[in-house]
Write a structure and sequence with these properties.
The structure is a single chain. With 450 residues, this protein is of the alpha+beta class. The chain folds into 2 domains: 36-76 and 124-289 and 335-449, Outer membrane efflux proteins (OEP) (Up-down Bundle); 78-120 and 292-328, no CATH class. The chain is built from 11 helices and 6 strands. It has helices spanning 2-35, 41-51, 53-68, 71-74, 124-190, 196-231, 254-264, 266-286, 336-403, 408-442, 446-449; strands spanning 37-39, 79-94, 101-120, 239-241, 292-308, 314-328. The strands form 2 sheets. It has a 4-stranded antiparallel beta sheet, with no helix packed on it. It is elongated and about 140 Å long. The two termini are 62 Å apart.
Length: 450
C-alpha cells in the first residue's frame, strides 16, 4: 500500500513539473503568437486575389486583349505617313570646249505627307473588329478560370495548413501520452515495481512518437510555405490561422448541379466564345471574294538648288498634290481563297466536336465528383464515430495499464488505434472540403462560395 502511494506521489510531482513547463512555454511564446498576423480564410482569399502570381499574370493578358479590342487594330482608319527625302549629286563631265569640264552640284529636299486608306475590303474590318471583341471576352474568360483555380488552390492550401497543424496536435498528444507512460514505468522501476523490459518498450514507443512529431513539424511548416506561395507572400511570412478545421455536409441534387454546370462552368463558356471566333474566321476568309477599294492621297514639296561652277546658284520649289483611287479584285489565286474558306469551316466543325466532347467529359466528371462527395460524407460520419470509440478505449486502456490489467504491448496497440483514428478523421475533414471545392469549381460557384 505504501509502495503504491509513493509511486503515485512521484508521478504527481512529475506531472506538476510538466504542467509548469507547459505554462511557462505558453507565457513565453504568447508574445510571439499574438504578434503574428491573424489570417482567416476570407482574408487569405482576398490576399490571393491581390497578390497571387497566376492571377496577376492573367490580368496583364487581359490588358493586352483590351488594347487590341479597337477599330484601329481592325484596320478601320487610314495610315498617315510623314517623311522627308534628300538627294544630293555632284556632276563632273567633259565640256564641249576642248580641255574644259562642266562641274555642277544638285540638291533636292522633298518633305511629304502620304495617306493610305482601304475604303472597302469585303467587310473584313467589321469582321475583324467583332473577332477582336470575342478575343477580349475569351481573355477575360481565361482569366476567370485562372481566378477560380487560384481561389480553389488558396482554399485547399489554407485547409492543408490547418490539417497539418491539427495532425501535429494529435501527434503531440500521443507523444505526451507515451512520455507520461514512460515516466510512470520509470517511477515504478525505481521503486522496484517495474521491469527493465517494460521501461525499454515504453521508451521505444516514446522515441518513435517523438520522431513522428519532428516529421510532422516539417510537414506543417511546408504546408505554411505552400500557403504563402499561393498567396504570393514570402516564404518566411508567419500567420496565425484563425479558421476552424471543420467541414459542413451539404445535400445536393445531381440535376441541379448539371444545370449549374451548363450555365456557370467557365471553361465551357470559354469554348462557346472560341466557337464564335471560329465563325468569324470563316467570314474573314470569305472577305477575300470581294474587291478592295483603296485611297492613296498626299502632298510633296520639292526644293531644288542647282549650282554650276562659275555661275550663280539656281533655286526652285515645286508642289505635288495627288488623290488616287484603286479597285482590285482577285480573279484567280490557285484556289487559295476557297481552300482557306473550306479549312475555316473544318476548324469550326472541329470546335463543335470539342464542345460536345467537353460537355460530355465535364458531365461525367461532375457525376463522379458528386458520387465521391457523397461517399466522403459517409466516411466522415464513420470517422467521427471511430474517433469517439478510440478516445474512450484509450482512456479505459490507460486505467487498465496503470492497474496492471493490460501490458505495455496492449496499451501501445490501443494508442496506435487512437492515433490512426484521429488522423483518419482529420483527413476525412480535408477530403470533404477538397471534394466540395471541386463541385463548386465545376459549377462555377467557387468565387460565390468563398
Amino acid at each position: 500500500m505504501n509502495l503504491k502511494l509513493n509511486v503515485n506521489a512521484n508521478v504527481n510531482t512529475k506531472r506538476k513539473r510538466q504542467w509548469l513547463a507547459l505554462v511557462l512555454t505558453f507565457i513565453l511564446g504568447g508574445a510571439f503568437i499574438f504578434a503574428q498576423e491573424e489570417l482567416s480564410l476570407s482574408d487569405a482569399v482576398s490576399k490571393g486575389l491581390e497578390k497571387n502570381f497566376s492571377i496577376r499574370t492573367a490580368k496583364q493578358s487581359v490588358k493586352i486583349a483590351e488594347n487590341n479590342d479597337s477599330w484601329g487594330a481592325a484596320g478601320r482608319y487610314p495610315t498617315l505617313d510623314l517623311g522627308v527625302t534628300a538627294n544630293n549629286s555632284y556632276k563632273n563631265e567633259t565640256s564641249a570646249a576642248p580641255g574644259e569640264r562642266d562641274k555642277s552640284m544638285t540638291n533636292l529636299f522633298t518633305p511629304y505627307i502620304n495617306m493610305r486608306w482601304q475604303l472597302f475590303n469585303g467587310f473584313a474590318v467589321k469582321i475583324t473588329r467583332d473577332k477582336l471583341a470575342h478575343l477580349n471576352q475569351l481573355s477575360q474568360g481565361n482569366a476567370a478560370v485562372v481566378v477560380e483555380n487560384a481561389v480553389q488552390a488558396i482554399v485547399l492550401a489554407y485547409y492543408k495548413a490547418l490539417l497539418e497543424q491539427e495532425k501535429l496536435n494529435v501527434v503531440q498528444e500521443v507523444r505526451k501520452l507515451s512520455e507520461d507512460r514512460y515516466q510512470y514505468v520509470m517511477e515504478r522501476k525505481n521503486v522496484g515495481a517495474g521491469s527493465t523490459f517494460d521501461v525499454l518498450q515504453t521508451k521505444i514507443a516514446w522515441l518513435n512518437d517523438k520522431s513522428n512529431q519532428l516529421l510532422q513539424q516539417v510537414n506543417a511548416k511546408n504546408a505554411r510555405r505552400n500557403l504563402n506561395l499561393v498567396l504570393g507572400e514570402p516564404a518566411q511570412k508567419e500567420y496565425r490561422l484563425s479558421g476552424k478545421f471543420d467541414a459542413q455536409m451539404y445535400e445536393y441534387k445531381l440535376e441541379d448541379l448539371l444545370e449549374k454546370l451548363a450555365a456557370g462552368n467557365k471553361t465551357l463558356k470559354n469554348q462557346y466564345i472560341n466557337q464564335l471566333i471560329l465563325k468569324k474566321d470563316i467570314a474573314l476568309q470569305r472577305s477575300g471574294l470581294y474587291p478592295i477599294v483603296a485611297l492613296n492621297s498626299g502632298i510633296n514639296r520639292t526644293g531644288l538648288r542647282l549650282k554650276n561652277e562659275g555661275m550663280p546658284a539656281i533655286n526652285g520649289t515645286t508642289y505635288d498634290y495627288y488623290v488616287n483611287f484603286s479597285v482590285s479584285l482577285n480573279l484567280f489565286n490557285g484556289g487559295n481563297t476557297k481552300r482557306a474558306i473550306a479549312n475555316a469551316k473544318i476548324q469550326e466543325k472541329i470546335g463543335s466536336l470539342r464542345i460536345e466532347e467537353m460537355e460530355l467529359s465535364l458531365s461525367n466528371f461532375l457525376r463522379t465528383v458528386y458520387e465521391i462527395y457523397n461517399v466522403k460524407k459517409e466516411l466522415f460520419t464513420l470517422a467521427e464515430e471511430r474517433i469517439i470509440s478510440a478516445r474512450l478505449n484509450l482512456d479505459i486502456a490507460d486505467e487498465k495499464f496503470k492497474s496492471g490489467a493490460i501490458n505495455s504491448f496492449n496499451y501501445r496497440d490501443v494508442q496506435l488505434v487512437y492515433l490512426n483514428a484521429a488522423l483518419g478523421k482529420l483527413q476525412a475533414v480535408y477530403d470533404l472540403i477538397d471534394t466540395h471545392s471541386e463541385l463548386m469549381r465545376l459549377t462555377g460557384g467557387v468565387i460565390r462560395e468563398y
